[in-house]
Every structure is written in structure tokens, then in C-alpha cells.
Amino acid sequence: MPNTRTNSKTRRTAEVIKVGPNELGKLPPQVPELEESVLGALMIEQNAYAVVADLLRPSSFYKDQHRYIYEAIQSLASQEKPIDILTVAESLKRLGKLETVGGVTFLSDLTRKVASTAHLYFHAQIIAQKATARDLIAMAAHIEGQAYDETQDVEDLMQEAESTIFQISQQNQKRDVTQIDPVISEAFERMRKAAKNEGNISGIPSGFHELDKITSGWQKSDLIIIAARPAMGKTAFVLSMAKNIAVNYKRPVAMFSLEMSNVQLVNRLIMNVCEIEGDKIKTGKFNSDERQRLENKVNDLYGAPIYVDDTPALSVFELRSKARKLVREKKVELIIIDYLQLMNASGMTFGSREQEVSIISRNLKALAKELDIPIIALSQLNRSVEQRGGTGIDGKKPQLSDLRESGAIEQDADMVCFIHRPEYYRITTEEKTSKDLRGLGQIIVAKHRNGATDEIWLRFRSKYAKFQNEDEAYDEVYEPLPTRDEVTITSRIGNPDGARLDDPNEGRPF
């Protein structure tokens, strides 16, 4: 078996090895007679290729000569040329494989073996299933060989196995075309359920009223990207939202934190719910009022349907298996990932980090669609925000082009939201309206595939790592703005090495 491993940190692509008769004398799964029947049908039935095009690929055929013939048919179809014995023979001749497959005589024999093309699709399905079985046998044999090698990293090997199975399943995942009537019925059923909800909320409410007016709640099967520069409060925002959803609305939420441990994440939640400063949470030193508030309000978190996972360097394939289990066993209705750029696609090889991020974002969208739940992924913005000129509130406002590392994030997302706090840039007043911007954060819905884009304001209480509705009661004494060399409390709690906007290492671990 070929060893594709170089070291434990190198991403690898699991090779699919052609299977031959094994040591027990068993032959690999194959149906040569059906392969011949399908190839013959493709050369005598005008529209036969369209029937099997999405189901079969050259590697689906067990015999080499059958594979070469199908490649020739595939090539003709891609050029929109007719497919028959003569054109296939000519195509094979150009490829230098006509004699290898048995010449025109063999092609003629294939067509004579076809009694009827009525069962073409059914026969193609069997061929595809046998090919999948061969791929699984090859993968299992490869993994078995690697598992006996004591120099192999077991965690890497598990990632490779999961990645390969995922690739095989994706190759064979087909959905039948659905007539529109049942889809209309489902759409009306969702409308009826939405009509019963207060505030026209058809999805999962965030607890931020103005934002919910724009989104109608987070919608099923949507991938939502929430992006910002460091220290803008990304984690504070999603934790505030997770608390609203799980505690106030009793809807199960799962949060995958690749940056913080579970305890650090819960410390943030306690800060948020109990309104106790982060330094006191860390030291455990409270005055009598704070201790009383802690004892009273922390009870809101006990029993809350919030599920946290702090697996570092989580791969998108690990996420898929964990997410499926959470939805199946815990009835989770929303998944939050903090944050996208810390994920990887372990077990696969890429030419660049941009390609890997593209695969991750595409798989997150596919997962949201498969599980039929919204997935929210936090994302970093690149430094162009800092380098952008201009004054006033709009000077440093994020744009879609600022999304870091891959344009695929914007393309795959159903919604892209930015968090912008003008106060961080020492902008304390909105010029047009004279609005006091101290302690406020702007949520910008920059892309909304199924609705309008807009901007709303939320109150940001940095010492509690908390976002809340702008009109909610609060008691806040504004302190002098921090210098540009300081990091706000929200980026320090649970992340003592939190990156600053001017931190030369901000790009870690890239």
C-alpha cells in the first residue's frame, strides 16, 4: 500500500487503490455483464448518456477496457457529438486505445448484447454501488496497513479515514428530482407556523429585536457569517445571542470554540448573565452585591440547552459527525463556530490556504442544508479595514471584500453580517444625527440572500462581554477610551494572548 504520510502536520489525500483479488480468494465487487450492457446501450440509444451521466464516472467500471470506452463516450458527450459505434471507435483511435479495448469488433459485440435499454438506469445504479464498495474496500485496506505502522499518528490516521469516507459519500450522494407539489405544501406549512409566531419571526430569534426584524430570525439551512476585526466583540455577540436563544427561548444551541476552552467560554457566559467584570471572575474576589448577583443569576444557566465543544484545530469532517449527533440526540437547532479560520480540512491536500477555506465554507453550507438548521460561523476580516482612509462613522466600516482568505466565504454564505464599533476608532458621535456612539456597536447585514440588507445598533457593555438591545435598561458610567495599544476586556477574558489591531502576530496560526 502506498504511504501518503509525510509527517503528523502534513495534510494528505487518501489514495483510492484499485482492488484485486485478496488473500482470501474473494473477488472485488463487480458486474462485468452489466457494464457491457450499459456501454452497449449508450452506443445504440440516442439519449442514453443523459440518463447515467450523473451516476457513472470512468472509475465506476471495473474492467480497464470498459473504462476506456466510457471515457471516449464521456468525451463525445462533452463535445455534443453523436455517440455510436463509429464515433466511439474514432475517439478511441485518437486516444490510441482502440486495439486495447478489442477493436471495432468488441464494440459491435457490446451493442449486440443489449436486448433492451428500458432498465438502463437500474443497471447503472448497480455498477455505481459496486464501484463504491470497491472504494470502501480499498480505503479499509489502506487504513489497516497504516494502522499496523507504529510510526503513524493515530489521530492523523482517523482524520484521513473520516476524510476519505466523506469523499466517497459525496461522490455518490444523489438526490432525486422532486415534483413541486409537495414542496409547495411544505412551504405553506412553514408559513402557517411562522404566522403563529409573534413579531413575524419564522426562524430562530436572536433576542435582538431590530436584527430579528431584518432576518425574521435565523433561517433553516442558512450559513450565516459574522465577521469583524479583532476586539470588536465577535465572541461576546454570539455568546449574548446563545444566551438569549437557550435561556430566554429554550431553543437548544451548540457552540464549537476553537479558540477558548469550555471553562473560559462559560466564564464569558457568567460575565454576561451575572454582569460581573471579567477580572473578578478570574480572581474569584467579589463584593457582597456581586456575590449575591452571581448566586442568583447563575441559576439561569443551569439546565440551559447550551452544548459546548472546545476541540482545538477542529476539522470540518469532525464537525460534521459531531453536529449530526447533536441534532439527532440533543435536538440542537442552531450551531455556532468560533471561528472559521481556525478550522481545517484535515486529510486533504491543497495548493493554498484559500483553497482549504473554500472547502471548509462549502462544507459548512452543505452541512446546514443537510441538517436543516442555521449554522453561524465567525470570521476574521483582513487588515484592509485598518488601512482604509476616510473619516467619520463610515471610514472604517467593513465591506464584503474585507473577508479574510477566501472569496468563497462570501459566495457560500446566505447572510454576511459585520460588527463595527466606531468608538474603538475614537469616533464617539455620528456627524449627521449627533448620535452618541459611546458603548454602541453596529451590526451591518451586508449580504442577505433571501431578504433586505440594513444596519442596526446594539448596546455593547465591554466589561461584561455583553451585547443587548439599544433600548434595554442599563447603568453604565463611561470611562476614558483605551489607547490604541490596549486591548478591550472582551478580547482578554478567556484569551490572554488576544490579538490587537496592530499586533504583528495577529495572523496566528496562519
Mean pLDDT score = 79
Helices and strands, in order, run as HHHHHHHHHHEHEHHHEHEHEHHEEEEH
End-to-end separation: 33 Å
Any low-confidence stretches, pLDDT <50, length ≥5?
1-17, 478-510
What percent of residues adopt helix (DSSP H or I)?
A: 40-55%
Give the overall shape, derived from the CA principal axes. Answer: elongated
The helix-and-strand class reads alpha/beta
Number of strands: 9
Specify Rg, calculated over alpha carbons. 28 Å
**Major sheet characteristics:** 9 strands, mixed
Percentage beta strand: 5-15%
Count of helices?
A: 19
Strand order of the largest sheet: 3-2-4-5-1-6-7-8-9
Task: Offer a concise description of the structure.
The protein has a nine-stranded mixed β-sheet with strand order 3-2-4-5-1-6-7-8-9. The chain contains 19 helices and nine strands. The protein is 43% helix and 10% strand.
